[in-house]
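Exercise 7b. Backbone tokens:
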């Protein structure tokens, strides 16, 4: 008989938020795989529980190498409890590889639901919660970060990100540039902890605030793009959206189709807007007006 993989959610700040079942699972597990064994020790002390099973480390640096070992233990019948530093394993934390390995081997996978920084930040942000998407951490390199943000610029759902405090200013500044300085957002810091803070406002203002220095665990919530009313997007705006995607490396045909779908406009209308924009740019160049020289440039 195979064992069971238990993904155990842990508190994101306050140990008293731990569900009662977490202590029972930690105590009864054959193996506890922890992202940080020192943090696990503090958590078990706070819960008043002593794990009877083997404790092993399972973090980004050894996740690939340790997964086969844990998967073999599961096949042999072990109950393996996986915990990360905070929140639910595999959500921007180690765990996906082990879940995939367990599923592939027919091992049952269950979870101990627990606190979530994503849902907590979303709930307290004051921004729309009916539809949202979680984007995790943005790339560290500036160019890759801006490219990722451009991909999300027209996303209408509320966006949720994780960010390191020392990169917060750069990220908010990039968001203000790509999404617009007036786009509303909330910086949720140290959720459920002693110095919890939620700072709400336009991205431009939040970037200036972050320049003073911010500490702690950060979750960002950003309002989605406003949906244009039917027929509202004018030709210049359609052309701008296509150009933005082309600059990001997307082929023009795909960019036109994507913009048409988002704007609710026929592809032909978007194509005509792109052509008109390029013609306008051409005639604005010196020597590009009527006459032989202008025709040769065309």
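Sequence design result:
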């Amino acid at each position: 008989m195979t064992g069971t993989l238990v993904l155990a959610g842990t508190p994101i700040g306050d140990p008293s938020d731990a569900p009662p079942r977490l202590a029972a699972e930690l105590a009864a597990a054959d193996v506890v795989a922890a992202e940080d064994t020192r943090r696990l020790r503090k958590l078990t002390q706070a819960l008043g529980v002593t794990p009877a099973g083997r404790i092993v480390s399972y973090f980004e640096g050894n996740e690939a190498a340790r997964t086969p070992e844990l998967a073999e233990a599961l096949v042999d019948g072990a109950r393996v409890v996986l915990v990360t530093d905070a929140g639910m394993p595999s959500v921007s934390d180690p765990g996906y590889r082990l879940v995939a390995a367990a599923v592939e081997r027919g091992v049952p996978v269950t979870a101990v639901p627990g606190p979530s920084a994503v849902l907590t930040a979303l709930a307290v942000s004051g921004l729309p919660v009916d539809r949202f998407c979680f984007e995790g951490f943005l790339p560290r390199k500036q160019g890759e970060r801006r490219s990722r943000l451009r991909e999300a610029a027209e996303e209408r759902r509320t966006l949720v990100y994780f960010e390191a405090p020392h990169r917060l200013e750069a990220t908010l500044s990039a968001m203000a540039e790509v999404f617009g300085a007036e786009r509303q957002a909330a910086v949720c810091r140290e959720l459920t902890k002693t110095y919890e803070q939620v700072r709400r406002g336009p991205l431009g203002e939040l970037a200036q605030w972050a320049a003073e220095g911010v500490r702690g665990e950060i979750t960002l919530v950003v309002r989605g793009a406003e949906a244009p009313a039917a027929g509202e997007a004018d030709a210049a705006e359609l052309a701008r959206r296509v150009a933005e995607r082309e600059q990001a490396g997307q082929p023009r045909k795909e960019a036109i189709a994507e913009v048409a779908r988002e704007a609710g406009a026929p592809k032909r209308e978007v194509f005509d807007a792109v052509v008109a924009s390029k013609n306008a740019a051409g005639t604005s160049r010196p020597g590009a007006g009527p006459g032989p020289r202008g025709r040769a440039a065309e």
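Instructor comment: Residues 289-298 have pLDDT under 50 and may be disordered. Residues 267-283 form the longest helix (17 residues).
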